[in-house]
Amino acid sequence: MEDDLITVGIILGPRGLKGQLRVESFSDLPGRFTKGESFTLNGMERVLRNTIDGTKGLILEFVGIDSRECAEKYRGCELKISPERSEKLIPRGSYFHHEIIGMVVLDEKDVELGKVIEIIVTGANDVYVISNAIDRDILIPAISSVVREICVEDLTMRINLPKGLNTRL
């Protein structure tokens, strides 16, 4: 199902007259967009014919998208891959957003604070938005002094709740 796929980029629009697509990459992995790789684009598998690292960003050419009119149909569409094709992240302790969202968050006393419902990307570090039925949302910086442990298999995160964020549950 397409809901299980991982978004690695979004089509910003066409470039030129021959079906080239301007793309914003969401991937940190070098070589993610290489000739011959396939991606799901608007529910259909598309094979990458060429990649151009342009001065204004990434330009991709796909087999079967050969005109500006055809390329225009994909404006705003997401480029996706299957989770099996997502390579393991290089730095230890790094996670995909889809692995974090939905995790149950526990404080240092194993009290459940809620679930991660959103990740806010900032310049310095990500911020996890934790929602629960009792209190308003809690914003937690994704830094090692706060996030003690992440267990992807159990969908749990243990944190040291920063002073001033104590909640009454």
Parts with pLDDT < 50 across at least 5 consecutive residues: none
CATH class of the largest domain, please? Answer: Mainly Beta
| Strand percent estimate | 35-45%
Mean pLDDT: 85
CATH fold category name of the largest domain: Elongation Factor Tu (Ef-tu), domain 3
SSE blueprint:
Elements (H helix, E strand, L loop, with lengths): L5 E10 L4 E6 L12 E4 L2 E11 L2 E6 L5 H5 L5 E4 L15 H4 L3 E3 L5 E9 L6 E5 L6 E4 L5 E5 L4 E4 L10
Parallel strand pairs: 7-12
Antiparallel strand pairs: 1-2, 1-6, 2-5, 3-4, 3-6, 4-5, 7-8, 8-9, 9-10, 11-12
Report on this model:
The chain is mostly beta strands and 169 residues long. The longest helix has 5 residues. It has a 6-stranded antiparallel barrel with strand order 1-2-5-4-3-6. 5% of the residues lie in helices and 42% in strands. The protein starts with 5 loop residues before the first strand and ends in a 10-residue tail after the last strand. The model has no long low-confidence stretch (mean pLDDT 85). The chain has 2 domains: 84 residues, Elongation Factor Tu (Ef-tu), domain 3 (Beta Barrel); 63 residues, SH3 type barrels (Roll), CATH 2.30.30.240. It is built from 2 helices and 12 strands, in the order βββββαβαββββββ.
